Amino acid sequence: MIASFHQHYICIERISFALSSILENAVLSDAYRYKEDELSLVFKLDENYFSLSLNTSCRQGLFQFFDYELSRSSGVQPLFESIKYKRIKGIFQSKNDRSFLLEFEQNLILLFKCYGPLSNVILFENNIAKESYRSSIINDFQVQLNQLDRLASEKLSLEIEESKNKLSYFVYKKNQQYEFQIDKQIEEEQVYFSYDILDAYTFFSQRYIQQYHFLKEKESLLKSLSDQIKRQEQVLYNNKTRLHYLENAINPEEIGHIIMANLHMINKGDEKTELFDFYRNENISIKLKKELSPQDNAAQYYRKAKNRKLEIEQAYKMIVQAEEKLKLLKPRLVEVQLAETKKALKQKDKIEFEQKNASGFKEFECDGFRIYVGRNSENNDVLTLKFAKKDDLWLHAKGVSGSHVIIKNQQKRKTPEHVIQRAAELAAYFSKSKSSGLVAVMVTEKKFVRKPKGALPGQVRVDREDVILAEPKLE
Asked: How is domain 223-342 classified at the architecture level of CATH?
């Protein structure tokens, strides 16, 4: 596969020769920079206009040509004021070089340097560089015009050659990249063809710029998603490791009970003691703080037990949250990998919904289990039909209107009765029977809840249910 010719000196040479026949005696009508990476020049040709733009947002200079006047948008920066309304005397090509110049009256010259990421346009007054489109390229102010080998005399011979054997210009697409070819057909996806180099080059530049920014945005999004996945996988690993340790270590509450049962065998000042562990029917070595009494040492272990319970709850919470995020992040990563258009990248990200669900629903916690409560009829539908999974538990006050309640199924664990009872209290509280002493609450798995065709928001049908009684409680 031959490399794209869009930055080759032969291509720049043919562009400059094509411009020379269009811009002869034209007057520069306007010049401005849009943002930081696009220069626009507008020329008046008697009663008509011709415009060109040089875009450098893709780390190279890409031309586009228009047979009409480009209109200014807001936020542009005027450039090259000293050559506005000046007439072009000639266009010259540098021999074997990717540069050409427009010579205006009063010894004013615009030099176009098409040097990849260093592409620039420089204004010379009396052969001294005075202004440039990209002023950050400081070395361009040291350019000497007398060092350029100008090729105006070869224009005629080139035109004769092209008239005998008219050249063709092709735009191809290969591996999501656009390529520009001169008079060469290749075995790739041909997307455009023209005998006019300015027309073909404009088409190529527009597609190249669009694709470049699409791929750049895609790469950035893929990196962001990959980083998020790595973070959530690390959170999952860390909390599973921590949870395994906490659930398999001896409960500090049991050690407190052992100490309290053997106070007569412990003295203040002891740093450790060996006692009979009646939970496991074996002796156990227990660390003590010598400055504490036996009772205070036991109290300290009871405090550790309380903290351990909180740690376990927090670990479960982090595991569930990480798993739920990964369920959305991983499919989204695949979607982005397969995306071929910018529109596909701009589609509403499902992850945003998941990250906002805590604010979208009322959220409660009970011993590490997450309980979600719908806020209104529409929110109930979102909670039950979109957020809840088939094995989550679904609750609702029986026979009255109220909020849908979901208990997330975590790690395929059986939901404890006291957690179900807590969710039932919330279902009772957020219902029309809130003021009753006891409320009948339906409990079932979400897979047994469906929405009949034509049902109003929040209305569902339950195919299988259990009923429990619960006192309406918020706390």
From this structure: Orthogonal Bundle (1.10)
Work out the number of other CB atoms within 10 angstroms of the CB of residue 463: 9
- Let me know: does 43 contact 49? Beta carbons within 8 Å: yes
Q: Where exactly does CATH 1.10.287 map onto the chain?
A: 223-342
Which pLDDT value is given to residue 351?
A: 44
Tell me which residue has tokens 């992040």: 329
Instruction: Estimate to the nearest angstrom the gap between the alpha carbon of 103 and the chain centroid.
Output: 46
Could you tell me how far CA 244 lies from the centroid of its own chain?
34
**pLDDT tens, 32-64?**
998 889 999 999 998 899 999 999 999 999 999
Cβ neighbourhood burial of 124 (10 Å; 0-12, 13-18, 19+)? buried
Question: Where does CATH 2.30.310.10 sit in the chain?
Answer: 9-165
Nearest to 52 by CA among 36, 68, 35, 76: 68
| Cα–Cα distances in angstroms (integers) from residue 341 to residues 177, 210, 336, 350, in the given order | 13, 10, 10, 18
How far apart are alpha carbons 266 and 123 in whole angstroms?
93
Q: Are 284 and 274 in contact (CB under 8 A)?
A: yes
Beta bridge mates, 63 = 54
Which of the four pLDDT bands, split at 50, 70 and 90, describes residue 162?
low
- Give the bridge partners for 43, in sequence order: 28, 50
